[in-house]
């Protein structure tokens, strides 16, 4: 049986995969199968870390808003503020509210008073 020389396509795919593995050590930088496994694991971990960072920031924003609202009065809480905002159809996300609390607390008090006035009517 004659020998069949393989084309360049498979070799080109392997070199493209090897471009990703510059920081891997040992067999993870030499063997194609382990390179692809490490690559998928690395990309999945990067995505999980991005989600975790977003979760942490959301928790921080909620904590800041709640701290300022609690200073106003014990009866009013973060949960009631967000619920009243949805009822009055005021669309401000938590990030913007947290920035308002940091820069100008009086503005947040004005917003909450306006919401309470609208709901009482």
UniProtKB/TrEMBL annotation:
It comes from the Eukaryota. It is found in: Plastid. One of its GO terms (cellular component) is ribosome. SUPFAM superfamilies: Ribosomal protein L20 (SSF74731). The keyword RNA-binding applies. GO terms for molecular function: rRNA binding; structural constituent of ribosome. NCBIfam families: rplT_bact. This is 50S ribosomal protein L20. PANTHER family: 39S RIBOSOMAL PROTEIN L20. Binds directly to 23S ribosomal RNA and is necessary for the in vitro assembly process of the 50S ribosomal subunit. It is not involved in the protein synthesizing functions of that subunit. InterPro entries: Ribosomal_bL20, Ribosomal_protein_bL20_C. Belongs to the bacterial ribosomal protein bL20 family. GO terms for biological process: translation. Keywords: Ribonucleoprotein, Ribosomal protein, RNA-binding, rRNA-binding. Pfam families: Ribosomal_L20 (PF00453).
């Amino acid at each position: 049986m004659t020998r069949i020389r393989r084309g360049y396509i498979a070799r080109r795919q392997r070199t493209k995969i090897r471009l990703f593995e510059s920081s891997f050590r040992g067999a993870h930088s030499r063997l194609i199968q382990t390179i692809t496994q490490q690559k998928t694991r690395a990309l999945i971990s990067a995505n999980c870390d991005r989600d975790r960072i977003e979760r942490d920031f959301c928790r921080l924003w909620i904590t800041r808003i709640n701290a300022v609202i609690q200073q106003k009065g014990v009866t009013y809480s973060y949960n009631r503020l967000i619920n009243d905002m949805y009822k009055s159809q005021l669309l401000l996300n938590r990030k913007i509210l947290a920035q308002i609390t940091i820069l100008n607390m009086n503005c947040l008090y004005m917003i909450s008073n306006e919401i309470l006035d609208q709901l009482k009517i």
